[in-house]
Amino acid sequence: MKIALLISGGVDSSVALRLLKEQGHQITAFYLKIWLEDELSYLGTCPWQEDLSYVQAVCDQADVPLEVVSMQQEYWDHVVAYTLAEIKAGRTPNPDVWCNKRVKFGFFLDYLSKQGQSFDKIASGHYAQILEDSGTFILKQAPDPIKDQTYFLSYLTQDQLSKIIFPIGHLTKAQVRELAQQFNLPNKERKDSQGICFLGKLKFSDFIAHYMGTKQGDLIEFETGKLLGTHDGFWFYTIGQRQGLGLAGGPWYVVAKDTVNNKVFISKSYYAAEKQRDRFVVGDCNWIIKPLLKPLQVKMRHGQRMHHCFINPLDNQRFMVKLAENDQGIAPGQFAVFYDGDICIGSGVIEVAQ
Q: Which CATH number fits domain 214-267: 2.30.30.280, 3.40.120.10, 3.30.70.360, 3.30.540.10?
């Protein structure tokens, strides 16, 4: 096949490139430049230059052509702007879900079409699997539960999934690392990147401070209303957060935020039995496969932890989700991603927890 491969400079996409090359496909590699260098350069060195040097070395070694595509404006308009708007509203955004939906498998496909470039498939180094069953495309978890990235891919449509392949989705991270050594990749020893893709090595808190600034507000004990300290802005906190509160006598957890008055409410008895947090409403749902009203599993954040749940429709796009057990980290704005076994059937945005 003729394949457009999205390459980042990391081991995963580089191994994906070599596997496709060995299978005899015709590959063109594309590096999407989304780093906000002009806006954030004072916060740290520009990571895309180091990434691109590794990308070029990997492509040269494999004799694969490389194109660098600027997606900075699209990324700002549809990922960064969304992130900032959600934070200002007191919600917890997930930029990586929107990056996959709108940029990597959205605007990039539009770019190829405008350039008159036609490819049979778009490939990337994601840890996920795509299967086809009678014309329906199924998003299946990778065998590596720690690295599985279906959470971040859950907002893709059937049309998008039909155009994508994940060459390393059937492998574990250890197997990918081993292949990187076998291929003697220039980046075979490079560590995995952490955090949000457009920030590189920058801290998310530094990014928020740049755009939101700081404003002193009250830290208040939820149960008593007692003033316990101050904070630099509610936008630095998310529901369920434990780290970074700076108070003795804990552990303390963020349980609520007053975005109008810039107050953050915290509690030591967050896990008390009477504080039931076992249901929430999701909206703006994207169903890869039509959900059946039967027991499912759900993730409220990326990671291994899943809850058993039941969902009941409220209207066309909104559902009530009832968990089999409590979860203290249900935060509005987060994506709730639903599974039927190891099949990701879709996701929705948490509107309100109950």
A: 2.30.30.280
Which residue among 197, 285, 309, 344 is the active-site one? 197
The predicted model scores a pTM of 0.91
- Could you report the per-residue pLDDT of 252-311, keeping only the tens digit for each? 989 889 999 999 999 987 666 555 678 999 999 999 999 888 899 999 988 888 999 999
pLDDT score recorded for residue 42: 47
H helix intervals, the chain: 11-22, 37-40, 47-62, 72-75, 81-88, 95-98, 108-114, 150-153, 158-161, 173-182, 204-212
Q: What are the φ and ψ backbone dihedral angles of 337, each rounded to 5 degrees?
A: -110, 130
The number of residues in the chain equals 354
The CATH superfamily assigned to 2-125+167-199 is HUPs (3.40.50.620)
197 is catalytic: yes
**Predicted pLDDT at 292:** 82
What type of residue sits at position 18?
R
Q: Contact at 8 Å (CB) between 65 and 29?
A: yes
Q: Which residues contact 294 (CB under 8 A, 6 or more apart)?
A: 310
CA distance 29 to 167: 14
Which 3-state string (H, E, C) describes 206-261?
Answer: HHHHHHHCCCCEEEEECCCCCEEEEECCHHHCCCCCCCCCCCCCCCCEEEEEECCC
Q: Give, in words, the CATH class of 279-353.
A: mainly beta
Catalytic residue among 59, 99, 285, 344: 99
Active site residue 344: no
Q: In terms of pLDDT, which residue wins out, 35 or 345? A: 345
* Res 135 pLDDT > 90: yes
Cβ 291 vs Cβ 255: under 8 Å: no
